[in-house]
Write a structure and sequence with these properties.
2 copies of one chain form a homodimer.
Chain A: H1 3-11, H2 18-29, H3 35-48, H4 52-64, E1 80-83, H5 92-101, E2 106-110, H6 120-124, H7 136-145, E3 148-152, H8 159-170, H9 177-190, E4 195-202, H10 211-227, E5 231-238, E6 246-247, H11 249-260, H12 266-283, H13 291-296, H14 299-310, E7 324-329, E8 334-339, H15 341-353, E9 367-370, E10 377-378, E11 383-389, H16 395-402, E12 406-409, E13 421-425
Helix pairs in contact in A: 1-3, 2-4, 4-9, 5-12, 5-14, 9-10, 15-16
Chain lengths: 427, 427
């Protein structure tokens, strides 16, 4: 097989054969196909797309590049969630113990953040002692004993995706529906969950800027899940404004704890409960317990504490706080009608909460705290945002990122909030 | 400057700024932009094209990546030719001494072959003792004393092109008009010629399969030449059938000597004279000698012998011959109406005349000899082609390549030959 022929086939609108796809993914994983060759193929895929059959084969080849986990020995049904990434999206943190408290087993393999969206592992690593790396045996034990686990995907899981993801990031080939779909689904299918709920974010702070793009991605992934025997559904949810009132690692853990304690911002609470019900529905768990009750009676918090302890963390430890804060005040009086997710995400990133390169560390205490959300009436001079950082020199570029990121209008005009959950696919 | 932004700009139809172009070519040449990043950018250029202004800047940046030669101290005007590559295209061999014999100075920097088209240096290296590598001082002396030089381009000339060319070859990004044009023109402009005639091949054995594509490439290159102060014109010439009666290194040298001796196949002779006249016209040489006379009176042959000697070759040495031959006979009687250039080119390549990878050696004696050309009447069983190789096992795959590569029709039907020179651009 000649890789140049494979690239040329895709480039010239040709559809790749199963044999070509299996070969190119395997050869790339083994280093026989060079990075520059795969980069050219990915850019050709960006322009030409993939048919459903091609994409199913491409995803299967990515799964076949590594091991596939098996949790069928568990008594409880496995169910998982994946978010395409947003600003302030800490939902995995309260959601995993919540679903476990209601009878599901949640094998959540998560990643680290890159760019303006945070990573679940980065958030959890702000908890002293907590470790992200578990063996497969440890995962299985924790799922059996606690019901939920959030940990790093092992190197043996879809290694093709690991290479492809790093390559796409440096070659401007991230924003392609088949490449996004195969990346997400290969990992989730290899992870061995029996059911999966996708949270596809739409808006300024998300990869998908409009609903039609997001729907296309959602439909593509739901079909891919079905093709591989994983019961899959998807929600399209709003990401024009940050979720909750914090963006940043330790800040988001604190907010997640508020939700687990029965409080927390209404949007975080609503999305956590909606996703929990959907995860339980799709996997067919029937403990009879509703997520809202599990937040109220403390059972979700109990699972959280057990999860953190099982991975070496101290659920009672003080979380890291940034050394410096800077308050951004409302410039005018009126109603906050827009607070842009991307602006807040980039600001948090520049404050140290995110990383520019995979190797960079994150600052656990850094981030942005929101004192008002769209719809709220504010007074001129009242605190709008608090910026947190360990390095005072970072304030100026974070403030630059927020420039033009919010609008205050006459309070009398009223305000119609956009729905948090826009649509459901494949329910 | 962020290379991912540069790739994304091109990918999303954006036009690259001069600063972006200068930076990305320089950074790639220095190894700061990685191969996979340039591969993605090249594939985006394949899909999005380049504006005239972008292409002029891109080419200027490629030239600026190395040194630019200067032959302005010569008394004679410099003039050069470049062919986009075809099967049996040995024209550079008789053409260079011919133009020198008529008053031009020809600084011909050539390359080695890759794929089914042969390289001029490979052909000349079949002459015992001849060396392709000259210093700039040696080139200048030979141009002054002999009038013509064919040698390898030094590593200092458009090094960006050297890297880009190798990368395009392995990433299926060869067939892009702006990338082809900038590759050819950056080398030719850096080479320091004052005038340039392009032989843009059209047909099955050429990169450009149709006339409109070829014309677009020709116009693009003529404009690029003008933008850089090089008087440039282009011929579009037929490459549906091989040029002359040989394809292969030593076989083509022998045929070139026939032309220099006043004979040779009519198509090779016609194209050599046409290109010579155009090269002399464009550079404004006025020795008063016509190329046809210089072939007849032996003066072009004299320059050839001086050129070969000046580079260590023995013009009287016996040329290498392949160890084995195999004759393909005409299967039917009638008129040969089609003999496909690509089929013959691939057959010659498989016999050992060409290389699959840059590092491969070529077999000097290998190739294909044509005993009939389109329009000729043949009898069943009469020799049509002779295949030459050092390795008998190569015959079967060469014969496979020729399968379907020629048609014999009823002789009574007559035959209208296609014109060799299809059009002239920018004369």
């Amino acid at each position: 097989m000649d890789v140049v022929d494979v690239i040329r086939t895709k480039r010239d609108t040709g559809v790749l054969s199963d044999t070509q796809i299996d070969w190119v993914i395997d050869a790339y994983t083994r280093g026989v196909v060079a990075e520059e060759q795969m980069a050219a193929l990915l850019m050709a895929v960006f322009f030409r797309g993939m048919s459903s059959a091609e994409l199913a084969q491409w995803t299967a080849a990515m799964i076949a590049s590594g091991e596939r986990m098996d949790f069928s020995s568990l008594e409880r049904p496995t169910t998982d969630k994946h978010s395409t990434g947003g600003v302030g999206d800490k939902i995995t943190l309260p959601l995993t113990p919540l679903v476990a408290a209601c009878g599901g087993a949640v094998p959540q393999l998560s990643g680290r953040g890159l760019g303006h969206t945070g990573g679940t592992l980065d958030k959890l690593e702000s908890i002293p002692g907590w470790r992200a790396t578990l063996s497969q045996a440890e995962m299985l034990t924790q799922l059996r004993d606690v019901g939920g686990v959030i940990c790093a995907a092992g190197a043996g899981l879809a290694p093709a995706d690991r290479k492809l993801y790093a390559l796409r990031d440096v070659t401007a080939t991230v924003e392609s529906v088949p490449l996004i779909a195969s990346s997400i689904m290969s990992k989730k299918i290899a992870e061995g969950t029996s059911a999966l709920v996708l949270d596809v974010k739409v808006g300024t702070g998300a990869f998908m800027k409009d609903v039609e793009q997001a729907r296309e991605l959602a439909v593509t992934m739901v079909e891919l899940g079905a093709a591989h025997g994983v019961k899959t559904s998807a929600l399209l949810t709003d990401m024009n404004t940050p979720l909750g009132r914090t963006a940043g690692n330790a800040l988001e853990v604190t907010e997640s704890l508020e939700v687990l304690a029965g409080g927390g911002p209404s949007d975080v609470k609503e999305l956590t409960i909606t996703l929990a019900r959907e995860m339980l529905r799709v996997c067919g768990a029937d403990s009879g317990k509703d997520p809202e009750d599990a937040l109220r009676d403390g059972s979700a918090m109990d699972v959280w504490r057990a999860m953190i302890r099982a991975q070496g963390g101290d659920p009672d430890a003080l979380l890291p706080r940034a050394r410096h804060t800077h308050v951004v005040n409302a410039p005018d009086s009126g109603r906050l009608v827009r607070l842009d997710a991307l602006a807040v995400g980039v600001a948090a990133w520049r404050l140290g909460a995110g990383r520019a390169r995979k190797e960079d560390p994150v600052a656990f205490g850094a981030g942005v705290e929101l004192h008002a959300k769209p719809g709220d009436v504010v007074q001129a001079g009242q605190p709008l945002l608090t910026l947190h950082t360990d390095d005072e020199e970072r304030f100026s570029r974070a403030i630059e990122a927020l420039d033009g990121g919010y609008d205050i209008a006459a309070a009398a005009n009223g305000f119609t909030p956009s729905p948090l959950v826009i649509d459901t696919v494949g329910a």
